[in-house]
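anyone seen this seq b4? input:
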Amino acid sequence: AGEGKGLGHEFLRHIKRCRVLIHVIDMSGAERNPVEDYEIINKELATYDLALEKRPQIVVANKMDDEYAHMYLEEFKKKYPDIKVYETSTIEHKGLDEVLYAALAEIDKAREVEMETPESTEETVVYRYEPKKPDFKIVKLGPGRFKVDSEKIDRLFDTVDFDKEEETYQFAMTLQKMGVDKALYEAGARDGDQVIVNTFIMDYKE
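predicted toks r here
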């Protein structure tokens, strides 16, 4: 793009207005090497504007239904072990909600940073996703004990490394965006009550 080709200046100008970038990688490797694609795009972003290199980025491994996808994904993770990768398949409709919830959490964090730096007046484009109905159920197990029952949250739970503070925070923000905190309160949960999410037990805080 810096040389007048590649992503194109018009598209890059649009990206510059976005708080969070969702980098979708074709993991089928049908035409190109996914790892090389990832590196080429990031190089173009940095060449156009160094600030884009530090922009929050959600990496999505798409076409995970392809027979070679897991091989390329392992290659990617081996080279970039610290990068969180969301696995999706548009054909099988898998993983898409998790990406959208993660994007919402990152957008909120970016907005908090912007509020701390009011001198920034750069135009921002925000895309919001509102679930039509809750994807979970609150079950009261007894006095002061609640369980969040949800296949979607269970799938997301399996992707989180709770030893990493950033991922744990992102998971908590996702639950909040889904309306879990509000639903727990409406079900009678109060400060100090136990909440079970999959195999994780946490204290409820109003």
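The chain has two domains: 9-116, 137-203. The beta strands are 21-26, 57-62, 85-87, 137-142, 145-149, 194-197, 200-203. kinda curious what u guys think
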